[in-house]
Amino acid sequence: MGWLILALMGAVTFLYGVSTHAALLCLLVKPLPVLALLGWLHDAPPSDYRRWISLGLIFSLLGDVLLAWPGDLFVFGLGAFLVAHLAYLKAYLSDCKRLAVLPLVLALGVGAVLLGLLISSGLGPLLVPVVVYATAISAMLWRALARLGTDVPKRSALLAAGGAVAFVFSDSVIGIDRFVAPFHAAPYVIILSYWLGQWGIAASAFSQTKRI
């Protein structure tokens, strides 16, 4: 219950900070929901899966701070989230290694459409970092979807897949808002879908069967 209260307090305060353009307040409270998820995740059964998800949350926490920090640290934030996605990818591979052609095609399709849209709008010096990041998050989505319909516990597979989809959606809105067509509601859509995605990914560790 304590972790839930911390997460809600951080989320509500951050949304208030966004609405009032209080940059310092946003910087101070933005990490709290993911920090709460890390604390909550400690109660999940120990496994390689949980360890990799925890590492992903730690780098997500770093990415949250870098993206909220005064000044343009976008590339550094992108790098932190790149490592987070690689950690999630490793977690998904720890209990499912099937090829899963349909999820692969879906993930590649989503990545290609979004990347094409961003490139057509002009990425300049950010082209290479964005391409690398898009590849990593597409791979993360593929492996999350690949766990569906396997011997992986159904609840864990559904939560991880839903979390991955929400995370990809959040990052897609970031790209569209930053490079294509900024819109007023973007900060709210981005952060709410991001928190939902991180919750789904973290919650998937509670439905894991213990593996030796």
UniProtKB/TrEMBL annotation:
- InterPro entries in alphabetical order: TMEM86B-like (IPR012506)
Q: Which coarse location class applies to the principal site listed for this UniProt protein? A: membrane
Give the way it sits in the membrane.
Multi-pass membrane protein
Where would you find this protein in the cell? Membrane
Q: What keywords is this UniProt entry annotated with?
A: Membrane, Transmembrane, Transmembrane helix
A Pfam family of the record is YhhN
Q: Where are the transmembrane segments?
A: 67-88, 100-120, 126-145, 157-176, 188-206
Q: Which family does it belong to?
A: Belongs to the TMEM86 family.
PANTHER family tied to this protein: GH04784P (PTHR31885)
Name-wise, this protein is Lysoplasmalogenase
Which species is listed as the source? Pseudomonas neuropathica
